Amino acid sequence: MNGELAIDVRGMTKRFGDRTVVNDIALQVRTGEIYGFLGPNGSGKTTFIRMLCGLLRADAGSGTCLGHDVITESEIIKRQVGYMTQRFSFWEDLSIAENLDFVARMYDVKNRREAVQRSLEQLGLAGRQKQLAGELSGGWKQRLALAACLIHQPKLLLLDEPTAGVDPKARRDFWEQIHILAGEGLTFLIHHALHG
Ligand SMILES: Nc1ncnc2c1ncn2[C@@H]1O[C@H](COP(=O)(O)OP(=O)(O)OP(=O)(O)O)[C@@H](O)[C@H]1O
Fold first, then answer.
1. Within 10 A of 29 (CB to CB), how many other CB atoms are there?
2. pLDDT per residue as tens digits for the range 5-21
3. Is this structure's pTM higher than 0.80?
4. Contact 152, 101 (CB under 8 A)
5. Distance CA 22, CA 20 (A)
6. For residue 56, which atom of ligand 1 is closest to its CA?
7. What is the greatest pairwise CA distance in the chain?
8. Crossing angle of helices 138-149/112-122, nearest 10°?
9. Helix/strand/coil for 133
10. From 161's CA, which of 5, 39, 89, 143 has a CA 20 to 30 Å away?
11. For ligand 1, is residue 52 a contact (CB within 6 Å)?
């Protein structure tokens, strides 16, 4: 969006025992970019992303993620990352707003009421906030999952095969939403395995 680099790393390498799983990888991703990681199962995508986000220590490599050193400032980076898994789950008998409030508590968000409201509005959920999560269609559940990832105002979002098993209309709506958020300055890393 503004040309700044959200990710700027080089030489990233990770070994498990005598096996090199990530070998000398460089990556630059601009702020507001939606970047897709494609590769066969086991090719090292998760390992590389975990090193970027401060969840795993690299054996070699250097650079920055969100302006912070990936080796020495991993704690700061971690707090600015959000993660949406394929298998998100909610309290089905709690409302959308109650579920978001629960997530805000987990993240120890300071002004929870404001944070919940912001996430609801960001994802177009404000009109449905009292609806029970268990009554939502797949597409709306996914929206709620995205709202939950945004509650602590991350700058980088990791999405793991976000539209696997989602119907075409919900998939289109989802990507539209992702593009809107990217336009607001959020950076996305999309993790996608190439099956078969
Ligand atoms: N903590 C670990 N200890 C040992 N080996 C590991 C560890 N984490 C991952 N691996 C191995 O490293 C390789 C790369 O795994 P990784 O999960 O990064 O691949 P991936 O491309 O994300 O796969 P997928 O598409 O299935 O998610 C795999 O062979 C995996 O078994």
1. 19
2. 999 999 999 999 999 99
3. yes
4. no
5. 6
6. 1
7. 54
8. 130
9. helix
10. 5
11. no
If you measure from the C-alpha of residue 76 to the centroid of ligand 1, how many angstroms do you get, rounded to a whole number?
Answer: 24
DSSP string, 1-56: --S-EEEEEEEEEEEETTEEEEEEEEEEEETT-EEEEEEETTSSHHHHHHHHTTSS
Residues above pLDDT 90, as percent of the chain: 78
For residue 73, report the distance from its CA to the centre of ligand 1, in Å.
24
Span from the CA of 46 to the centroid of ligand 1 (angstroms): 7
Rg (CA), the chain: 17
Q: Which own/partner contact pairs does 18-25 have at CB distance under 8 Å and 24+ positions apart?
A: 21/47, 22/47, 22/48, 22/51, 22/58, 24/60, 24/61, 25/61
Please say whether the beta carbons of 48 and 22 come within 8 A. Answer: yes
Helices 168-183 and 138-149: crossing angle, nearest 10°? Answer: 20
Residue type, 189: L
Q: Tell which atom from ligand 1 comes closest to the C-alpha of 43.
A: 21
Do the Cβ atoms of 151 and 115 come closer than 8 Å? Answer: yes
**From the alpha carbon of 193, which atom of ligand 1 is closest?**
25
> Quick check: CB of 47 below 6 Å from ligand 1?
yes
